[in-house]
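Worked Example 4.2. Consider the chain below.
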Amino acid sequence: MFALSRLTTLLALGARTRATRITTPNLRVQTQPIYCRPYSQAPSVVLRPYQEACIESCVEALNSGVSRIGVSAPTGSGKTTIFVSLISRLPTPPNRPSATRAIVIVNSIELAKQAAQQVKTMCPDLSVEVEQGQRYKASGAADVTVATYQTLMGSRRLAKFDPTTIKAVIVDEAHHAAAPSYIRVLSHFDPSIRASFLRDETQTANDTLDVPSIIGFSATFSRHDGLALGKVFQRIVYHSDFLDMIKEQWLCNVRFTSVHANLDLTSVTINTRSGDFNPTSLAHVINTDTINDLVFKTWLDRAATRKSTLIFCVNIAHVRDLTNKFREYGVDARYLYSGTPAFERRVLIQEFREGKYPVLVNCAILTEGADIPNIDCVIVARPTRSRNLFAQMIGRGMRLSPGTGKEDCRIIDFVDAIHRVGGVVSTPTLFGLDPDILVDDETPASLAERAESALSPGKSSQAPDIPKPKSVFYTDYEDPLSITPNSYVTQLSPHTWVACGDDVFVLECMGKGYLKVTKNEDGEGFVAHFVPAAADREEASVLGMKSPYFRKRQIAVADTVDAAVKACDTYALNKVVFGRLVSGLLQRAPWRRAPATDNQKKFIAKRLKISLEDGEVTQPDDTAISSSPLADPKRRISLATLTKGQAADIIIRLKHGAMARYDKKKRKSAKEALIEEKERARRERETVRVGPLPQAA
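Applying the procedure from the previous section yields the following structure tokens:
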């Protein structure tokens, strides 16, 4: 086995992470008997305390008149056990005496069989049937029917289940319930669901006492694509977080390792609806021989002694290539994907459960509903921006399995070590820590402790020495219409330098030309030019000159803007401006306080495309220059009140491209704000809380 020291050139393994945890809600325990019935027969499974609390919360909500509720519980918490127990306890509603049956809706035949078997085990006195495909056709008269939603999409198959005979509809993996296929099925039992999507207020007001209770269960009770679960379920009545369940030892302990690699996700496109990476685009970055080799060697170094490793890939090609990489090194790795035949899939999963081979590679198949308790290592070889998906993947390894000798589960994920791409979910971000923090062999408890320590008052992380900046730039006043001088430039020089945005500074030399400081083309340092005047604009126009200026001359190169400005000041006083004109360069020159001239006003009005009458602004509301996002939002000024100096500064900015730079910055700022708002909304959708669900997507 490779020693860690031999992998240091490939891996940047480390540790740290913090817990963003959503604690289990405080549940109100009723002092009066809950409206439910006991088991008709003593259960063969003893419920855990949180499972009992969940059932009590469900019954309490249903008794209050809410008919569509959701339960959020992590993978491995025993959701099937909870809803089977709930079904057995729910009585026939007094106003619906014929409603004695229940239907459980799942998304695969494997889950259907598991649920049916659990009903038989826990409630042997209840009749159970399966409705799926051509092989399993239920009568519709069993106490409990477990059906796949795909089969129920058939009108004849759905019609056999009379809503008046159903007391409860259980929806497994309920985060899918807002999809059109589920809406069609669930609306058969409660027409107000379809009405809510059609925004038909008359139908959504139907009496909920006349319809079956609809109860959704999911480990990730939210949708990252924005479809509104609130139009299906009225409220979340119970939520538990996997971190809390690990702490309470209902799930196995976890050891986290994050591998830093040069992934460069900056070029990967993002699905505008889901907010996650597009798989094809992501595969171009992830499915490379270098990255696949890194995945294998990480497994070899950190998990080769593990008995059952489950790996998540980007797409089918990635699945095959990564499987082949393991096989190249002599490891018995197998894979399954959407095209794997059902029989072969069952055999692969069963043999994996039995520990007959150590590595199973998959793509979007085992993220949901896979009950394989012996998994003791999960490798997330596909970056994601979805917290739900990340939680689903790592949750596959959190089930307890003492019978197989499993003590804990190793979680390995891969983080971009060089390029920071916003929104990527990883082990550090799962605990609320910086994604650059190294994580190696950390437990949830240690990561939570790191997180709390990082947030403690008076504590700060050890940051590397940062060199002092060569210069500081204040961009608050880059609005070309601002009448407030740039605070930084005014401190550099006594002369009236004007900031024109993007590190461009101009000094008008009293009609003799102008000095201009800009960034070097390579972005390092500054260059200063003098552009001498050939004639004033009127004279240039009469003479037919294309420009009233001669060709520019480079006069200085400097490392900082301070040095460049000082060089220009010296040049202006020695080569350009002499005698009385020197005082005109000063910030406090008397001429700057005089009222703006008509020509100044006309120039500004023309460039801003506003009209003037007798030198006064006529639109809009006697204001030509209004506030902007990057300046004081309360500022409004009139051309009539401008001084010569203020007008001169505005004209200089307009002449030297400040408006175009400012508009570009405004567009960029608006775009970034929109992206940030979408990202905030996406994160909000992935946050689960007990209480009413929002109706709008």
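The radius of gyration is 34 Å. Residues 589-648 form one domain. Compare this with Example 4.1 before moving on.
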